[in-house]
């Protein structure tokens, strides 16, 4: 398949042509200590998708009534009692 390649991990990746802010990608690459711009973008996309999944999970927990703090460790006055 033209334009497609396999990553070392065995995942299928597709080459995409995107219009991006070069300075932002360069800063992202430095912040993530990525070897390439492509790696930096893949890491950022993966991390964002993980955040989306976590948010959806929290929404499902809230919809079911939330979590009961049976030890009251997150109660507003818990820090005052502990210290």
Structural domain tally: 1
DSSP summary: helix tally: 3
Beta-strand residue percentage: 5-15%
Order of helices and strands: EEHHH
Structural class: mainly alpha
Which of globular, elongated, flat, extended, rod-shaped describes the shape? elongated
Radius of gyration: 21 Å
Largest beta sheet: strand ordering: 1-2
Residue runs with pLDDT of under 50 for 5 or more positions: 1-7
Largest sheet: 2 strands, antiparallel
Helix content: 40-55%
Number of strands: 2
Mean pLDDT: 83
For the termini, the CA-CA separation is: 63 Å
What order do the helices and strands come in, and which of them pair?
Blueprint (H helix, E strand, L loop, with lengths): L3 E3 L5 E3 L7 H11 L4 H27 L14 H5 L1
Antiparallel strand pairs: 1-2
Helix pairs in contact: 1-2
Quick take:
This protein has 83 residues and is mostly helical. 52% of the residues lie in helices and 7% in strands. The protein has one domain (4-82).
Structure report:
- The chain has 83 residues and is mainly alpha-helical.
- It contains three helices and two strands; from the N terminus they run E-E-H-H-H.
- The chain has a two-stranded antiparallel ribbon with strand order 1-2.
- Strand 1 and strand 2 form a beta hairpin.
- Helix 1 crosses helix 2.
Give the tags.
83 residues, mainly alpha, 2 strands, 52% helix, elongated
């Amino acid at each position: 398949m033209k334009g497609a390649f396999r990553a070392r991990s065995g995942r299928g990746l597709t080459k995409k042509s995107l219009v991006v802010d070069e300075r932002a990608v360069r800063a992202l690459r430095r912040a993530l200590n990525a070897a390439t711009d492509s790696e930096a973008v893949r890491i950022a996309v993966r991390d964002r998708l993980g955040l989306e999944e976590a948010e959806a999970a929290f929404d499902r927990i809230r919809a079911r009534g939330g979590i009961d703090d049976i030890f009251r460790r997150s109660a507003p006055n818990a820090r005052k009692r502990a210290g």
